[in-house]
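Entry 12.
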Amino acid sequence: MYLNQLWVLLFATLLFQSCIQPTQLASSFQEVDVEEPATIIVMRPNPLGTAVRNRVYHNGKLIGFTGVRSYLIWEVEPGLHSVGSSGENYDFVEVGIEAGKTYYFKQAQRPGLWKPRIELVALSEDQAMKTINKLKMAKLVERLPRSAYQSKI
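Predicted 3D structure (tokens):
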């Protein structure tokens, strides 16, 4: 009897975790008012950690969350930019963005104490194209939940 209840609880937990959806602020997805903007894509191809959403930041501002096998995409003006991500830690990359180019970053995860530890890794276009077709774009939302604006880690 108790074993059946345990299986039902385990199944319900897995079902709930798989419903966690990656989200991105719609305001970050708007077109940039420059002649030739650049594009930044942050992807999370790892199928593990279904209950965890990793935060993504652009110049210190929260853009959204990645979930399992998802990505965020936004346009930026050329110049120096910071792209960050947090899980149990906070990692960021500063990159000089050139007009018209696309910059790809992967959230590499490794086990942490409470949540996965994140490392942002720059990818070549060839590497990214092999991966991105298997991923889904984050859902655009007008507002993120209030809890999203707590500390970066």
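Annotation: Residues 14-18 have pLDDT under 50 and may be disordered. The chain is about 15% helix and 40% strand.
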